[in-house]
Write a structure and sequence with these properties.
CATH topology of the largest domain: TIM Barrel
Bound molecules: N-(aminocarbonyl)-beta-alanine, zinc ion
InterPro entries: Amidohydro-rel (IPR006680), Hydantoinase/dihydroPyrase (IPR011778), Metal-dep_hydrolase_composite (IPR011059), Metal_Hydrolase (IPR032466), Metallo-dep_Hydrolases_sf (IPR050378)
CATH superfamily of the largest domain: Metal-dependent hydrolases
Protein name: Dihydropyrimidinase
Helix content: 25-40%
Number of domains: 2
Largest sheet: 9 strands, mixed
CATH architecture of the largest domain: Alpha-Beta Barrel
Structural class: alpha/beta
GO molecular function: hydrolase activity, acting on carbon-nitrogen (but not peptide) bonds, in cyclic amides; metal ion binding
Low-confidence stretches: none
Shape: globular
CATH class of the largest domain: Alpha Beta
Family: Belongs to the metallo-dependent hydrolases superfamily. Hydantoinase/dihydropyrimidinase family.
Domain Amidohydrolase-related: 50-436
Length: 461
């Protein structure tokens, strides 16, 4: 089966050029000057459109257990929504709960995902119980294609690890060539502020933001960087939201340390003003780290331009407003933490291109090429080149759309971006050569997506 994508502008992390792309079965066969290939079994006209490597969302939580409930997108609904938005790979987090092993956790996440995904997927491992077995099992995970481990400096009593536990896991990461991903917020201090707010009757959603000040993200980020320096471990700061944290990352990178960071669209476009929406609507915007004051946004865009922020992921972790966010009415600390977003990352970051905040090449790099390199998937993913998987998006940069829960495909009853007007829209999506999204609708389905056993990370500076 040969598919020809004709007449488009092919994008990469280094630029754009007029080219045609020939796909043979699941792979890119060739990229050539317009008109070199005359025909194929199927021809897709990309005139006036961008042709870019499928998005890689390196931070999602499908069916994630949290506080007695779980995030509402399944691996099927979540990966279908991702595909609609031009994302063709997700890396989701398997969650070790205390008292279980990493290997049993990995088995459990394979049971949830295998045969159910519409696009390709990999796993990171959340480590929440550091002991000799866990450390040994990190080796098994790396061998099984799970080469990155997330740890938490937040959520005492749940996912939290002490500095000593983090140090031990980092030593193992150094030994195995794997990466430590860090949720960097000072959870011990935050829990005190939360208790004080509740005791004084401050219970609404905005308190979630006020009790998690950005300086405590900056402090934890700097501490994680120090622990990584002592152990030699590569460090990837997840969902960075604060100027103070970015400054710590930038300083470490200037010194040449292997420190990287991602941010998420919600920190670029939303703010603590959304958390302060009346009538409990702010609960829709509760995630950790919290949405910040708007002053942080300019710093984050600058971080994206200068590569101190290397990746944009979504931290997609949807909970319904009606029956789940509701659990925290009268006590903000019980609002399930997380926001939906897997469908709209490519569109939202394209607004950064439209606004002149980032270049087209940077859009592709932060949303596809760098996550592929960072997480051991390159050049199979993240680039349109001979031999790569034919994960390809045809994007209409001139189309207009309005984001809404009425039209999105995520299995959640609200949109964090309700009413946002977007310039640009996904037209067609190929996942390993199969057209899964086209102007005539969804052509993919559960089971098409395959597990990606990832290599070790390829660090970029
Ligand atoms: O609030 C969030 N971000 N929920 C998902 C879990 C995490 O910490 O990434
Ligand atoms: Zn986190
Ligand atoms: Zn997350
Ligand atoms: Zn629901």
């Amino acid at each position: 089966m040969r598919t020809l994508i004709k007449g488009g502008t092919v994008l990469s992390a280094t630029g754009a050029s007029a080219a045609d792309v020939l796909v043979e079965d699941e792979k890119v066969a060739a990229v050539a000057a317009p008109g070199v290939f005359e025909t194929a079994d199927e021809v897709l006209d990309a005139s006036g459109k961008y042709v870019l490597p499928g998005g890689i969302d390196a931070h999602t939580h499908m069916e994630m257990p949290f506080g007695g409930t779980h995030s509402v997108d399944t691996f099927t609904t979540g990966t279908e929504a991702a595909a609609w938005g031009g994302t063709t790979t997700i890396i989701d987090f398997a969650v070790q709960s205390k008292g279980t092993t990493l290997t049993a956790t990995l088995d459990k996440w394979h049971e949830k995902a295998d045969g159910n995904c519409a696009i390709d997927y990999g796993f990171h491992m959340i480590v929440s119980d550091v002991n000799d077995t866990t450390l040994k099992d990190m080796e098994t995970c790396v061998d099984a294609g799970v080469s990155s481990f997330k740890m938490f400096m937040a959520y005492p009593g749940v996912f939290y690890s002490t500095d000593g536990e983090i140090l031990r896991a980092m030593q193992k990461a150094t030994e195995t060539g794997s990466t430590i991903m860090m949720h960097a917020e000072n959870g011990i201090a935050i829990d005190e502020l939360v208790a004080q707010a509740l005791a004084s009757g401050r219970t609404g959603p905005v308190e979630h933001g006020l009790t998690r000040p950005s300086i405590l993200e900056g402090e934890a980020t700097a501490r994680a960087i120090a622990l990584a320096k002592v152990t030699g471990a590569p460090l990837y700061i997840v969902h960075l939201s604060a100027a103070e944290a970015l400054a710590a990352v930038a300083a470490a990178r200037t010194e040449g340390q292997n420190v990287f960071a991602e941010t998420c669209p919600q920190y670029l476009y939303l703010s603590i003003e959304d958390l302060a929406r009346p009538d409990f609507e702010g609960a829709k915007y509760v995630a950790s780290p919290p949405l910040r004051e708007k002053r942080h946004q300019a710093d984050l865009w600058r971080g994206l331009r200068t590569n101190n922020l290397s990746v944009v992921s979504t931290d997609h972790c949807p909970f319904c407003f009606k029956d789940q966010k509701e659990l925290g009415r009268g006590d903000f600390s019980r609002i399930p933490n997380g926001m939906p977003g897997v469908e709209h990352r490519m569109d939202l970051l394209h607004q950064g291109v439209v606004a002149g905040e980032i270049s087209l090449a940077r859009w592709v790099e932060a949303c596809s090429t760098t996550p592929a390199r960072m997480f051991g998937l390159y050049p199979r993913k993240g680039v349109i080149a001979p031999g790569s998987d034919a994960d390809i998006v045809i994007y209409d940069p001139a189309a207009r759309q309005t984001l809404s829960a009425e039209t999105h495909h995520m299995n959640v009853d609200y949109s964090a971006y309700e009413g946002f007007e977007i310039t640009g829209k996904v037209e067609t999506v190929l996942s390993r050569g199969k057209v899964v999204v086209s102007p005539s609708g969804f052509g993919g389905g559960r089971g098409h997506g395959k597990f990606l056993a990832r290599d070790l990370c390829q660090y970029l500076s």
